[in-house]
Amino acid sequence: MKNRKKKYQNMIANHFREHSSIYLFIIVLFLMGVIFGAVVVNSLTLTQKEDLYYYLSQFFSQVSNGKVADSKDLFIQSFSHNSKFIGLMWLLGISIIGLPVILILLFIKGMVVGFTVGFLVNQMGWHGFLLSFVSVLPQNIIVIPIFIISATLSVAFSFKMIRQQFIKRMGEPILPLFARYTFLLIIAFLFLAISAGVEAYVSPVLMKSIIKTVEAFILPAFI
After folding, report:
1. How far apart are CA 201 and CA 3, in angstroms?
2. Under a CB-based contact definition with an 8 Å cutoff, are residues 207 and 131 in contact?
3. Can you give the pLDDT at residue 217?
4. What are phi and psi of 98, to 5 degrees?
5. Between the CA of residue 40 and those of 51, 57, 105, 163, what are the distances in Å?
6. Cα 53 to chain centroid, rounded
7. How many CB atoms lie within 10 A of CB 68?
8. What b-and-e string marks burial along 159-177, b requiring 16 or more CB atoms within 10 Å of the CB?
9. Exposed/middle/buried for 219, CB within 10 Å: 0-12, 13-18, 19+?
């Protein structure tokens, strides 16, 4: 049992060591997306901010009154959305020419997170930070590492495919690599299911409690 555990630990350590440069690049790219998303908030016009804040306030009002989508529907929607994202990265990884698109998708994901948090903080200050902490953070603690790992694996597999096709250097057969690549995709789906469960069953409860605490601030008079 100990030998098997040590074997897996060595495999994981070797994996991160072998792909450390790709992981570093992917993480930096994602953080750049987050920063860019936060910066975009400041470029919005006053009218755009007011329109977004109005719809956001409407949503908060519905959450406060318990008028949110069924948890099962939220679970399906979250799992479907993230699975499509990961599945697309997987396909792009085996397409060779999809490498730039993988990087663009990850940057966009970071930008969405940065924009969401940035807008909440920009419009509501400390209250917005609390809301982003309970509405964005819980599921993204799982989703973001999965996206980063999936993107790294897709980029690494794409590089191996390129070497196999164009450099023609003898190396590890592509079929075992593809089998491991597909297996890790299935593992990613399992973690996405956990994330969807958090988003559907945990985040709404946390949001409702925070919204009730700051209700006087976040629900403006025009609702």
Report:
1. 38
2. yes
3. 55
4. -85, 0
5. 16, 20, 17, 38
6. 23
7. 15
8. ebbeebeeeeeeeeeeeeb
9. middle
Residue whose tokens read 């994901």: 109
> What whole-number distance in Å separates Cα of residue 158 and Cα of residue 142?
24
Per-residue H/E/C for the chain? CHHHHHHHHHHHHHHHHHCHHHHHHHHHHHHHHHHHHHHHHHHCCHHHHHHHHHHHHHHHHHHHCCCCCCHHHHHHHHHHHHHHHHHHHHHHHHCCCCHHHHHHHHHHHHHHHHHHHHHHHHHHCHHHHHHHHHHCHHHHHHHHHHHHHHHHHHHHHHHHHHHHHHHCCCCCCHHHHHHHHHHHHHHHHHHHHHHHHHHHHHHHHHHHHHHHHCHHHHCCCCC
Give mean pLDDT in consecutive 10-residue pieces for the chain, a chain of 223 residues.
68 79 94 93 80 71 64 87 91 84 91 89 79 84 92 88 68 75 90 91 81 60 40
CB 55 within 8 A of CB 120: no
- Rounded CA separation 189/95 (Å): 20
- Say if pTM beats, i.e. exceeds, 0.85: no
Separation of alpha carbons 156 and 132, rounded Å: 33
By the 8 A CB rule, do 199 and 138 touch? Answer: yes
pLDDT of amino acid 119: 86
